[in-house]
Amino acid sequence: MQPKELVQLAEQFGSPLYVYDADKIKFQYNRLTSAFSKVKQLRVNYAVKALSNVAVLQLLKSMGSGLDTVSIQEVQLGLHAGFPLEKIIYTPNGVSFEEIEEVATLGVQINIDNLSVLEHFGTKHPKVPVCIRINPHVMAGGNTNISVGHIDSKFGISIHQLPHLLRIVENTGMHINGIHMHTGSDILDIEVFLYAAEILFDTAKHFKELDFLDFGSGFKVPYKKDDIETDIEELGKKLSKRFNAFEKEYGRELTLAFEPGKFLVSESGFFLAKVNVVKQTTSTVFAGIDSGFNHLIRPMFYGSQHHIENISNPKGKERFYSVVGYICETDTFANNRKIAEIKEGDLLCFRNAGAYCFSMASNYNSRYKPAEVLWIDGKGILIRERETFEDLLKNQVMIEL
């Protein structure tokens, strides 16, 4: 999308504003499926937690995607968006057993990552097919908060607990139809991913009636110019060859599954915010915007970087700014960042705002959540209205004093 188009959308729908480019989502989806075109049965399950707007889910459904969900609410969103039950996998962590049973009743694929839950579920529902999430004890990810395959992670059943796992399966007679892993987000080295994949293959040999192997995701996207990213084409070439060889060795047709979130939607997203104040202190020039970590928490939470442009003055002389929000705590988006000269009233654009941005937004400081727009076929379509004061009060109850 061009700066001019983004400025027009902000004028039309106000700021702050999230905008998603449908063409970029389609491009990334096709890039992933093309990279694994040598695999006979490939399934892409979009990770709903990255961006859960129903219109975005509908777009992905139209391309043939399935869904990876982590809560019953995400399952319900997927059903609301029209996804068939067989295209949804549910991979919770630390949820109640009642929620797992409720999802199973719907007919969605269950993925269990806890030995005690596995035994309990297998004892009560031995005929319900279950996928098992293993922890390969492989460290991957750009931040400890998004590395989920290491030895101290709360996710998955340790690969060292395989004998116990097999005993549970044998004792309950339950049907295991899939094996799953996820090492973490922002995978830089595909050799680490391939190493973890070998652990998955070795685990799969212990189960004779598998339908699929789920390799998770975590593919890194570039956050700035010349930034490194996961070489998805090289990974596709190497993993496809290895998967096809394993399938022959296994003696049964298998589906290769992934659950990308950030890879599909991150680069499609633009977050637009207006500059309220430009403040010079003894050492810093602050650009204060009409937003804060209530709308975009990733820089503060993960230390993530979002490229910031002044789309009101894209060719202006560059100066150094610290971009901050209006929350009554430190909410710094960027420190000492080189940006085209900023004036009050200018519109700043944060790139890579499609994944884990709106989905982690809150009403902190009693601020409204922003609107969302999908840019598709050359026009902007409102896919979420901006909140109002009535939305803040909706579930609150006043009392008589």
What does this structure look like?
The protein is an alpha/beta fold and 401 residues long. It is built from twelve helices and 18 strands. The protein has two domains: 243 residues, Alpha-Beta Barrel (TIM Barrel), CATH 3.20.20.10; 119 residues, Lyase, Ornithine Decarboxylase, Chain A, domain 1 (Beta Barrel), CATH 2.40.37.10. The chain is globular and about 70 Å long. It starts with a helix and ends in an 8-residue tail after the last helix.
In short:
This protein is of the alpha/beta class and 401 residues long. The protein contains twelve helices and 18 strands. Helix 2 packs across helix 9, helix 6 packs parallel to helix 7 and helix 8 packs parallel to helix 9.
Characteristics of this structure?
globular; TIM Barrel; 9-stranded mixed sheet; Lyase, Ornithine Decarboxylase, Chain A, domain 1; single chain; 12 helices
